[in-house]
Structures are given as structure tokens and as C-alpha cells.
Write a structure and sequence with these properties.
InterPro entries: MFS_2 (IPR039672), MFS_trans_sf (IPR036259). Belongs to the major facilitator superfamily. This protein is mostly helical. The protein is about 70% helix and about 0% strand. It has 14 helices and two strands. Strands 1-2 form a two-stranded antiparallel sheet. It is globular and about 65 Å long. The N terminus is likely disordered.
């Protein structure tokens, strides 16, 4: 969707300061002059600052890659929990994360600059980093107090659930504080897209690192032909590496990123003397449209990430190293795609870029549905290679919709960065809860209720994972498309009304 420079564009219309017809105006909370910081004008960010910002989410990215790609696989095939219990643990984490994000967002917005000169965003970032570091290992390893076979299963679940809850609260703190820095670091729309692209590029590189590591550990260190209890240290060893390198990248972020106006005792950044109260965001119809797009995007990316490894080994009956190669193909194609997104966004706009990402995703999901197991074809070796074509397509589509949806959220916040973390918290709430519920429903519907050994899937798995990997992300793309259409119509009507005050928006 393109507009002339002299007209109101889609980014401006998403901003909370743009008041359209039929939308109740937001009351703005005046900030006393004594609380307004005398901040220097923001300049374009040096490329080193951009890179330092980009690595600030690497620890989270490494941990999230393990969480979404391997958690169900780990608890079902290595720890040998039932499918429903594995889904319950993931749901617990998602709900804790989802409930934490709006609260953390609000607290992050109102936190003053008081702690050894740390800005409020960086303060929450370092707190979250510590929580992630101290909790991550304990739910990627067999329950330490439960070595005895007489230990009740309930205690084992409680053990994992406690550390998962700590991890998810810390993870949410890092995510919200890092995302909400984007509108504060720069006012330039292109630079915001660039920061999102850099952030996503490091996300993709982090995933690549995890998948290469898992391929080495599963293919070289573990000689078994299948994934079972013997693979425990392949997962635990990968997590120890994540903690080590994650802390290094977090330190680089804190040393290289300067939060604007980060002076001790500072309480408010200057926003033309005004800021928007958090509850007034709920009066903006754009909030719900963008939230629907963001939720659909995260369902596409995360659900496919959870079930692609299981689809490869249980539906297509590929060797165990495919659980690393398949996701690796997704993230290589995704990384390459992000390199061009800034230019594409500039020429065809946010909405058309997002639609193109949905089209690529539809192609990948259709491919997943039609793909035959290589062993059942005339040329199994050739077919095994072509299997990864669908994952390449999924990576390109997923990264396109993810980067673009994050840019839409930044556009929605606009210049009202004082409550930016709260908005990111709301977006993350829809993401986490919807993903947790979706995975829990899928696990509850799993056809294999009891197998022996538990890490061996029943014959009904093949069809089940084919349906899941096509239908659940497919439904999410439909949800995102509907929200995109409503948002496009909303922006069009507001544009007409702003150009021509006599235009009737009730038609």
C-alpha cells in the first residue's frame, strides 16, 4: 500500500498521535516541566551501536530456539513424559510469560533511571538475563532430586514447572525491555525497520548456531539411531553452551548500547511535555488489529517451529539429524530474506510486504501437506533433498511476516515511547497465551496415548503431524490476513477522511 510523501502514510495512521474519525481522542497526561529531561536531539545511530543493540536479544533467542524447537521432543522422547504432560509444561511457560509481559511492560515504563545510571530498559534487561541464566539448565536436564524411580511424577512436574516459570519471567523481561528500546533509540522509520531487521538477523543466526550444535551433538556425540533417554546430555550440553555465550552477548549489549537520556534520577523522557496513559491504549482500534496480526504471525512461526522436527522424523521417517537440518534450512533462508526486507518495505509498503510473506507461507504449508515420505518414492535420496525445499519456503515467509509485524508494532507506538513497553507487553501476551493453548490442544489430541517405550511414536503419528503442521499455521495465516484486510480498510478510510473532512466514514 503506497501513498505520496505529502499524504498521510500508513505508519503515521497507526501512530497513537494520529486521531481518526470515529476514534475517541486519547487524553494525554501532562508531565510537569520539572520532570521533563533536557535530552539532546537524537542522531542517526552508528553501525556499531546498531550491532550492539542487535546482540542484546541473542541469549533469549538461543534459549527460545531450544524451547520451541525441542521442548516437546525432549520431554516426550528423552524424559519420557506423556504427550499431554509435555504440552502442559509448555503451556505453563507460555501462560507465565503471557501474564508477565503486560505487567513487566507497565513496570518498565514507570521505572525511573536510578540504578547506577542504568536506563529503565537496560535495568529490566539485566534483571531478566540473570533469571534466565540461573534457571535454564534445570529444566533441560532430568529432575535432580528425582533420581529414584519411587519419586512421584507430580514432584517431577513441579520441579520443571518452577524453573520454567522463573525462566519465562526472566525471558519476558529481556524481550520487552529490548523491544521497547527501538522507538527510544531512533525516531526514523527506516532506522526502526533496520533495527528490527538486525535484531531478527541475530535471531536467525542464533537459531542457526543452535541447530548446528544439535546436529553435531546428535549425529556425532550420540551414536544411537533414534532420539531417546540416552540423548539427555546432547540437550543439556547445548544448554550449557547457550548460557555461556548468551551471557557474553548480553555483556556486549550493555557495554555498547546507550539508552537515551539515561541519567541518574531521571523520571521521564521528553515527549513534547506529554505522555499517554497505559489504559488509554485500549481506546485505539488499531491496537486490536495489529495485535491480531502479531498473534497470527507468532502462531505461524512458533507452531511450525515446534512441530517441524516431529513431522520430519515421525511423518517422513527421516534420520534423527533431520531435526537439526530442517530447522537449519528454515533459518538460513529466513536470514537471507531479512537482508532485503528494508528495501522491499520501502518500495511496496508494510502491508504488501506482509501479504507477500503470507503467500510464501501458504506455499510451504501446502508443500508440507503434499510431501510424501522419501522411503515410499522411486528416488528416495532425491526426494529427501527436496523435502527441505518446503522448509526454505517457510523460512522466507516466516521471517518476512515476523519482521514486518514488529515494524507495525513500532509504528503503532510512534512517538509515544513512554508507554511503548506496555504495548509490547500486550502484543507478547497474545503471542504467548495463543501459542501455549494451541500446543496444549494439539498435544491433548495426540493419537498416541500410551506406547512402550514412550519415545517411540505410534503408527497414527505420520498423519497427525502432517495435519498439525498444515492446519494450525494455516489457520493462523487466515487470522492474520483478515486482520490485515481490516487494518488496510481502516487506514484507507482514515486517509480519505483526513484528506476530505466531508468524507462519511460511516458508509
Amino acid at each position: 500500500m503506497g501513498m505520496d510523501d505529502e499524504d498521510v502514510d500508513e505508519k503515521t495512521l497507526l501512530s497513537v498521535d494520529s486521531k481518526g474519525a470515529g476514534t475517541p481522542p486519547l487524553e494525554e497526561e501532562a508531565v510537569p516541566e520539572t520532570r521533563i529531561a533536557q535530552c539532546p536531539p537524537r542522531r542517526r545511530l552508528h553501525w556499531l551501536r546498531k550491532l550492539a543493540y542487535g546482540v542484546g536479544h541473542v541469549f533469549n533467542d538461543l534459549a527460545a530456539s531450544m524451547w520451541f524447537t525441542y521442548l516437546i521432543l525432549f520431554y516426550h522422547k528423552v524424559i519420557e513424559l506423556d504427550n499431554a504432560l509435555a504440552g502442559t509444561l509448555l503451556l505453563i511457560g507460555q501462560v507465565v510469560d503471557g501474564l508477565s509481559t503486560p505487567v513487566i511492560g507497565y513496570l518498565c515504563d514507570i521505572t525511573p533511571f536510578w540504578f547506577f545510571g542504568f536506563g529503565r530498559r537496560k535495568l529490566w534487561h539485566i534483571m531478566g538475563t540473570v533469571l534466565v541464566a540461573v534457571s535454564l539448565f534445570f529444566f533441560w536436564h532430568k529432575c535432580l532430586p528425582c533420581k529414584s524411580h519411587s519419586t512421584p511424577l507430580g514432584w517431577e512436574i513441579v520441579w520443571y514447572a518452577v524453573f520454567i516459570a522463573i525462566f519465562q519471567f526472566g525471558w519476558a523481561s529481556v524481550q520487552i525491555s529490548h523491544l521497547s528500546l527501538i522507538p527510544e533509540l531512533t525516531d526514523d522509520e527506516e532506522e526502526r525497520v533496520g533495527l528490527n531487521a538486525i535484531r531478527t538477523s541475530f535471531t536467525l543466526l542464533s537459531n542457526l548456531a543452535v541447530f548446528v550444535t544439535m546436529w553435531v551433538l546428535l549425529n556425532v556425540a550420540d551414536k544411537k539411531e533414534y532420539i531417546g533417554p540416552a540423548a539427555e546430555w546432547s540437550f543439556s550440553g547445548a544448554v550449557l553452551g547457550i548460557i555461556f555465550f548468551g551471557l557474553i552477548f548480553s555483556a556486549i549489549f550493555h557495554l555498547g548500547t546507550v539508552e537515551p537520556c539515561s541519567r541518574a534520577q531521571q523520571r521521564e523522557e521528553k515527549q513534547d511535555g506529554k505522555r499517554v496513559a497505559w489504559f488509554q491504549w485500549f481506546l485505539k482500534p488499531q491496537l486490536y488489529m495489529v495485535a491480531g496480526i502479531y498473534m497470527g504471525t507468532r502462531l505461524i512461526v512458533n507452531v511450525s517451529q515446534v512441530y517441524t522436527p516431529l513431522y520430519l522424523v515421525d511423518t517422513l521417517h527421516l534420520p534423527k539429524e533431520s531435526v537439526a537440518i530442517g530447522p537449519l534450512a528454515i533459518y538460513i533462508s529466513g536470514f537471507l530474506t531479512t537482508l532485503f526486507l528494508r528495501v522491499i518495505n520501502k518500495f511496496i509498503g508494510r502491508y504488501m510486504t506482509y501479504f507477500c510473506g503470507l503467500a510464501l507461507t501458504w506455499g510451504a504449508l501446502l508443500w508440507f501437506w503434499m510431501q510424501e515420505a522419501p522411503a515410499q518414492t522411486e528416488h528416495p535420496q532425491v526426494e529427501q533433498i527436496t523435502v527441505y525445499g518446503s522448509t526454505v519456503l517457510l523460512g522466507a515467509g516466516g521471517s518476512t511476516v515476523l519482521v514486518t509485524s514488529l515494524s507495525m508494532v513500532a509504528d503503532l507506538i510512534g512517538p509515544t515511547v513512554g508507554s511503548g513497553a506496555f504495548v509490547y507487553g500486550l502484543m507478547s501476551f497474545t503471542d504467548k497465551v495463543s501459542n501455549g493453548v494451541a500446543v496444549q490442544i494439539v498435544q491433548a489430541l495426540h493419537p498416541c496415548k500410551s506406547t512402550n517405550p514412550k519415545h517411540v511414536c505410534c503408527s497414527a503419528c505420520a498423519k497427525f503431524y502432517r495435519i498439525v503442521l498444515s492446519a494450525v499455521p494455516g489457520g493462523a495465516t487466515l487470522c492474520a490476513l483478515i486482520c490485515l484486510a481490516i487494518l488496510t480498510l481502516y487506514v484507507y478510510r482514515r486517509t480519505r477522511q483526513l484528506r476530505d473532512p466531508t468524507f462519511d466514514t460511516s458508509d
